[in-house]
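Handoff note, outgoing to incoming analyst
You'll be picking up this chain. Sequence as last confirmed:
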Amino acid sequence: MAKQFLNVLTVAALAVAPAPLAADDEKSDAALSQVAINVEDLDRSEKYYRDVLGFVRVWQYPPESETPIEIGLAAPGGGAGLVLARVNDDPLPEGKGRYGRIIVNTANAKALAAKADAYRKRSGEGSEPRFITIPGDSPPTIVFFRDPDGYEIELYQAPSP
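Most recent structure output, in case you need it:
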């Protein structure tokens, strides 16, 4: 099951990577719909993404279950959804944060980083936000931190015009 999950995650990561353009007469209507990550505790992870980034639950599977194995979250600003999955009690793969990250576009990276840090201080979960400095007159704001399961989150705020 873990190998199957890693294969799905790899495909999802490749879907967001730049790809060669098709011939002019071949257009694609592909769009990234959701990214799924395996988490240790669905309730804890849902609370984290709700409290820090404002994500809301839009579906679960099985639909009527009191113990879902997947929870679909939507970001307040739209875009691809995030699926939190917990399909069995096997330990999470070692080093999972090395093969991907969740990138969130935002108009106020500093405010979200402050929420992530406050959550970390209050709960002891997640990591301290790390701001990246990019030289230039109007650089973007980029912040990295980890969720309670060790997945890296990148906040990206476009440069001011």
